[in-house]
Write a structure and sequence with these properties.
This protein is mainly alpha-helical. It contains 22 helices and 2 strands.
Length: 637
């Protein structure tokens, strides 16, 4: 309740100060109202210092009210600046006064309040936005004029100031949240650097001179790198590193800012190479940045502790998104030079996805939970009955045949009368030996059910979040290229070339899995890549116009599969390659076969008859050879 009352009181005081500054212009003028508000603010700020030990929350409220009032006074003093407002004099004076107020607050933070009393949090939290804002206002008075470039410079200057505060503000271990102040400074730096990074693209495009437009680029990159350095190096008050999730925005901002280097490159290369080729070579710089980000995210092992898991995810996400944008935007231009950055970005996506699948094959030790099987036995529900006949009815106990005095089962008495005396069992004679009481046979009990236990097994590492992101963006890019080429044929790229890139990546992944797991068969490992490499080209060869390059490439791939299967003793490449080779040869030779069959159709009958006669003559030997061949092929990996 006290905190709520203080927050409402400070808000009302600030509103009163703003209203006084607005309506007292005709009464006191610019200088008078600024002095009045400044005196009130200084009094409130000074009153908070002695109250910090006994009434801490009240001191926080008074300090906030005083600092905000003095800030309003600094802005009002800008109106009486001797430098004209057109030259930025009002902002320059206000920025200087606001910077002086920020340093005063930092000085008040050093005032001791006792050994067990930390300094007021209002001082550092006020400095966190106030000092970067003062730097931005002073940069506005630079003797240059530019649109987005000047705004980007102002934001970058404020972000650099916030980074310095995040690095230099000390943590007081007496405070309950000792790291709150410098983390707020880091967040302010992120907030200012994000629009500065986005403004690099329009700022470096046209309007400003190239040398001036390039000034914000290294500064923005330095801000993101310094932020990452601070979040890596600085430890919290308890000695632990900060949360790794805070490193995600700097990684994304670094990728976005570095990708903007293609804009000034285009301004340099356009006069030399022309619009199309200049754009293509300039966009390669963006593709390179995206490829590096995807490589860092997907190919960096989790055993590298320098790069945390959130950083890898951020790099993979930003790089994959950037590469997908380059693939789609450049491929849709339908010219030859645009294919260079488009297919290069697509290759980077495919390589990142393939690398993630390769890392997923790494053997690791995993702990699995072993659950017991359901019990089966005579006492288990649904278990088998005891051997030796059906279970006797309830309440009847069969007596053993060797029991003394047992004369066999008693016959049923006749209907309607007592049993004859001759059929009644005589009583046994008295004997000192104890009488054996018939006992039921003990029934076997079910085995005790073991509890759950754990075991360590060797298994594949599996796909992590980076691999899933890279594969998802690669699928999106592949679907776009496939559908775009299918419905609107590209003048320079065929649809099977797009699928061949995926096939090469899948084949490399399969070979990697077979190297790490010797028990893996060739069909599940190599079938996706080999089918993608051959099936689309084979279908196009059947339906489309023959192409010498496609026919030669398909023939070389088929021969390579056969050789790979024969040398490496791999079943699927040998069988599938032989089928593809035969089908492809028949497809290529089909026009000549059709022309030959029109005039000499009887030759096929002759060949078939000779084959049947030869098979009949050597039926037994041929059948044995076929069985031997089938078993040998089945033994291949």
């Amino acid at each position: 309740m006290q905190t709520l009352l203080l927050v409402l009181g400070v808000a009302l005081v600030v509103l009163a100060v703003i209203a006084f500054g607005w309506f007292a212009y005709g009464l006191l003028g610019d200088f008078g109202r600024a002095v009045c508000i400044g005196v009130v603010g200084a009094a409130a700020l000074a009153a908070g210092v002695p109250l910090a030990r006994r009434l801490r929350v009240t001191a926080e409220g008074l300090s906030w009210a005083g600092l905000l009032a003095l800030s309003a006074s600094a802005f009002l003093f800008g109106d009486v600046s001797p430098i004209p407002a057109a030259a930025g004099g009002d902002r320059l004076l206000s920025g200087i006064l606001l910077a002086v107020l920020a340093f005063v607050a930092l000085g008040l933070r050093l005032v001791p309040h006792g050994e067990d009393v930390p300094p007021l949090r209002a001082y550092a939290l006020f400095v966190t936005p106030a000092l970067p804002l003062s730097v931005m206002m002073m940069l506005y008075a630079l003797p240059v004029r530019g649109g987005e470039t000047l705004v980007s410079l102002e934001l970058t200057g404020g972000a650099l100031t916030a980074v310095a505060l995040a690095f230099l503000l000390p943590s007081d271990p007496r405070s309950r949240h000792a790291d709150f102040e410098w983390l707020c400074a880091a967040i302010v730096a992120m907030v200012l650097s994000a629009p500065a990074s986005l403004l690099l693209y329009p700022g470096m495009d046209y309007g400003d001179p190239l040398w001036f437009a390039l000034c914000p680029l290294p500064l923005v990159l330095a801000v993101w790198l310094l932020l990452l350095t601070v979040l890596h190096v600085r430890r919290g008050s308890a000695g632990r590193p900060v949360a790794h999730g805070l490193r995600v925005p700097p990684v994304i901002g670094l990728v976005v800012a570095a990708a903007s280097v293609s804009v000034p490159l285009l301004r340099v290369l356009r006069p030399m190479l022309g619009e199309d080729w200049g754009r293509a070579w300039a966009n390669l710089a963006t593709v390179l940045v995206a490829a590096i980000a995807v490589g860092v995210g997907c190919l960096t092992s989790d055993r590298v502790t320098v790069v945390s898991a959130p950083e890898r995810v951020a790099a993979t996400l930003s790089g994959s998104a950037l590469a997908t944008i380059m693939v789609c935007s450049e491929f849709s231009r339908f010219d030859g030079p645009s294919l260079l950055p488009s297919l290069t970005a697509y290759g980077a996506l495919a390589a990142g996805a393939a690398g993630a699948w390769m890392l997923a094959a790494r053997p690791v030790e995993k702990t699995v939970v072993l659950r017991p099987a359901p019990p089966h036995g005579p006492m288990a529900p649904g278990g088998p009955m005891p051997s030796g006949g059906p279970m006797p009815p309830l309440g009847s106990v069969p007596a053993p045949a060797s029991a003394p005095g047992y004369a066999g089962p008693m016959p049923e008495p006749p209907m309607g009368g007592p049993a004859p005396v001759s059929q009644v069992m005589p009583a046994p004679a008295y004997s000192a030996a104890p009488m054996l009481t018939p006992q039921p046979e003990p029934m076997p009990l079910a085995a005790p059910v073991p509890a759950e236990c754990t075991a360590t097994v060797t298994a594949a590492k599996g796909m992590d979040a980076n691999g899933i992101i890279a594969v998802a963006f690669a699928v999106i890019a592949t679907a776009y290229l496939f559908l775009s080429t299918l419905f609107t044929p590209h003048p320079y790229v065929s649809i099977d070339l797009i699928i061949d890139i995926v096939g090469v990546a899948a084949l490399l992944v399969g070979l990697r899995w077979m190297m790490l797991w010797p028990a893996l068969r060739s069909a599940p490992a190599l079938a996706p890549g080999l089918v993608l490499l051959t099936a689309p080209s084979l279908l196009i060869s059947w339906r489309g116009t023959p192409s010498f390059l496609r026919m030669f490439a398909l023939f070389a791939i088929a021969v390579g599969m056969v050789l790979l299967g024969a040398i490496g003793r791999l079943q699927f490449p040998l069988v599938y390659g032989s089928v593809v080779l035969v089908v492809h040869v028949v497809t290529v030779l089909w026009p000549w076969i059709s022309a030959f069959s029109r005039d000499f159709w009887w030759v096929w009958l002759l060949i078939a008859g000779v084959l049947l006669i030869a098979t009949a003559a050597r039926y037994e030997a041929s059948l044995k050879s076929m069985r031997t061949l089938a078993s040998r092929i089945g033994d291949l990996r």
